[in-house]
Amino acid sequence: MSRRRGLDLQVPSALRPLGPYVPALAILVLQLVVFPMGIGTWALGVVVGLLTALVALGLALIYRANRILNFAQGDLGTIPTTLSVGLIAVSGLPYLLGVVLGLAAAIVLGAVIELAIVRRFHRAPRLLLTVATIGLSQLLIVCGLLMPRLWHKKIFTDQTLPDPFQAHLSIGSQIFGGSEITAMIVAPLLLVGLALFLRGTDVGIAVRASAERTDRAALLGIPVRRLQTLVWSVAAVLSFAGVFLHVSIFGFSAASALSPQALVFAMAALIIGRMDHLPAITLSAVALEILDQGVVAKYPAQEGRSYLVLAAVLLVVLLTRRVSIRRSDIDTASSWTSADEVRPIPIELARLRLVRWSRVLLPVAAVAIAAVLPLVLAPSQELKASTVLVFALITLSVVVLTGWGGQISLGQMSFVAVGAVVGAISSATWHIDLSLALILAGLAGAVVAVVVGLPALRLSGLYLAVTTLTFSLACSNYLLNRKEQSWIPRGDVTPRLLFRHFDLGTEAAMYEFVLVVVVLAFLAVAGIRHSRTGRVLLAVRDNERGAAAYSVSVVRAKLLGFALSGFLAAVAGCLLVHVNGAYDEKPFVVAGSLGVFTAAVVGGIGSLAGAVIGSLFLNGGQWFLPAPWQLLPSALGVLVVLLVLPGGLGNLVYRLRDAGLRSLARRRGIVVASLLADEGGDDLPEAIRVAMPERPAGLDGSAVDEPVGVDS
Predict the structure, then answer these.
(1) What is the dihedral sign for C-alpha 413, 419, 422, 424?
(2) Where are the alpha helices (DSSP H) in 581-672?
(3) Which residue among 268, 283, 298 closes a domain?
(4) In this structure, which of 112, 374, 496, 597 has its CB flanked by the most CB atoms within 10 Å?
């Protein structure tokens, strides 16, 4: 069952098979008209596009098998590539032997990851598994950075792979050697081989069947889990082929398929190719890389402009695409937006004086402790404490958008960057009060977030995630990069007297000001959560159609969620630029956005306390460990937390709260079904057994259920 939204245009039946390829063909037309280039550069774009297509097809296979976006896809190929480079370029093994050993390592790596990690999340929401791949990516990055030490080297920078054979081919101004020719031969063969495998073998047909409906395939006797292990191994092989061939052409230092910049092109091809149409994904990857070569050829001094073009192309494609709504898509989207809700305190206990006072005094005590920290902290530690508070506010914006609104944003730091730029201009150029700068920054962030969130009106889940990620890449590399934009302040950013009276020139004063702003933001968000606006956001997240049936404007609710989240993120950006004393685009890179999103999920995507816990989690490893090891605690921490506590660390806090409430209820002799039922089983507490009325026995001595009236 499927339904389509959009204009019901009559398309000739002969042209319908070309529908999935139209966006890629339009991208090629855009390149030819707006960014023309020579045939040699065009051929180079085709070669790079084929290598990107290998990574994109690995993404597609894993999406079809697990319904996730695998952020470790590039790293699946980088680890065996590093091994092959070490064996060939350092140890001196023959080229072919090094490639075979790397290929074997890729197969084993993909299988081990699926068996040891991915399979543990078999029944978990797809959101958690996707975040787990982010942690997995960080873990593989650490392994890749440490692997050169096997050859007593810190990093592979000057190692180059020899050409597999000596040959030269001239196309226009480009001269292709043995490595380029190998890529031109091997990549198409792998693509054709994958197509034949999926369509012409029993195993391939079983993989396709299990990808369509996993439960139904399992009922038919298909070994779904073994096939998923095979899919991960195949995806690792495709990634290894793409990364290794990229290394052989451009060198190891340029082989950044593990980086978000290169991975975004593969993800964009995946989105344009409708997630599961492998030929369309291949053509889209080639078209995007050709377009990238054209933009770089026309603007050689502005390489970041290609990311802006990519973001614009992706936004236009998603806004003009005719949407097909299938039951499987709805199930996938609902799994992506699932978030554990914080259970309110039962009304039977909320009326107790002890509980009422605790709900007030505990937060007040926490704020009071935070307020006196400057008395015991050094100035450098005060700067770190201010940064933690700012990132708590950024994480709170993710909680609002994803946890409450159900919209996946992987580019949250781009909204923070907007606020930072507006804050820097307000203080360094306009010389206005910081309080007014915060408001202006928040409004600018809200407007930008609404524009970026426009695809959410028609598409959600992975589509929106890749769109926001691409926009973040465009912001950090071009739109809000000081190398590209001369209007961004380059000097120190120092606030004027706050309200013409309070001096914020010291770290302690700035910390206290940031604390006040963050506390006010948390209070405002808590009030919104308990208002009609908060209930509307949750209703749209859980069931758009049901909310619309009750006259709720789904469009308005989605845009409101983006606006509120963008406002909070931009206010945090304005605070951050004043805490650091200058504007710097380094915190706003794509890796920063992924880190904030991961921190929100690990802290607890549905709770306010999770925002603070996630902020501490995000910054801890970055401050106290050397550079090569900084990602290790967060990588292992993400995987461990998501395996043990799917609801995040914030969920653990609320479990402890419920345990305390359960103990209080026992002491007071109060029966609270919602708390006592958590203990379950046959060992129900005596209080609830006494409170349960006896049921009359049937003829066979078993209990008989009776209708329960209103009075009961």
Answers:
(1) negative
(2) 590-603, 608-624, 631-644, 649-668
(3) 298
(4) 597
Count of the separate structural domains present in the chain: 3
Sorted by sequence, the CB contacts under 8 Å of residue 150 that are 6+ apart come out as 86
429: enclosing H helix or E strand = none
In the chain, the largest separation of any two C-alpha atoms, in whole Å, equals 94
Which pair of tokens denotes residue 182?
Answer: 């190998």
Q: Are residues 451 and 394 in the same domain?
A: yes
> What span, in angstroms and rounded, lies between the C-alpha atoms of 311 and 43?
23
Instruction: List the CATH number of the domain containing 424.
Output: 1.10.3470
pLDDT band of 711, cuts 50, 70, 90: very low
Distance, CA of 11 to CA of 24 (rounded, Å): 18
The two three-digit tokens of residue 215, written as one number: 């439960």
Helix (H) or strand (E) holding 472: helix 462-474
- Indicate whether 434 belongs to any domain: yes
Identify whether the C-beta of residue 561 lies closer than 8 Å to the C-beta of residue 400: yes
Phi, psi for 555 (deg, rounded to 5): -60, -45
- Residues 405 and 267 reside in one and the same domain: no
Identity of the residue numbered 224: V
Handedness of CA 305, 308, 314, 316 (dihedral sign): negative
DSSP symbols for 55-119: HHHHHHHHHHHHSS--TTHHHHHHHHHHHHHIIIIIS---HHHHHHHHHHHHHHHHHHHHHHTGG
Residue with tokens 């781009």: 414
Q: Give CA–CA dist 283/415, Å, rounded.
A: 32
Smallest CA-to-CA distance from 66 within 1, 135, 138, 119 is with 119
DSSP code of residue 484: T
Q: 171: which strand partners?
A: 174
Residue 186 predicted with pLDDT over 50: yes
User: Is 681 in the same domain as 649?
Assistant: no
Instruction: Report yes or no on 170 lying in a domain.
Output: yes
Residue range 639-670, pLDDT digits in tens: 888 888 877 888 888 888 888 888 888 888 87
Are 157 and 289 in the same domain? yes
Residues 220 and 361 in one domain: no
Mean pLDDT of the chain: 81
CB 116: neighbour CB atoms within 10 A?
Answer: 10
- The pLDDT tens digits of the residues spanning 258-281 come to 456 678 899 999 999 888 788 999
Can you give the pTM of this predicted structure?
Answer: 0.84
What does the block give as tokens for 212? 């369509």
Instruction: Please give the distance of CA 546 from its chain centroid, rounded to a whole number.
Output: 27
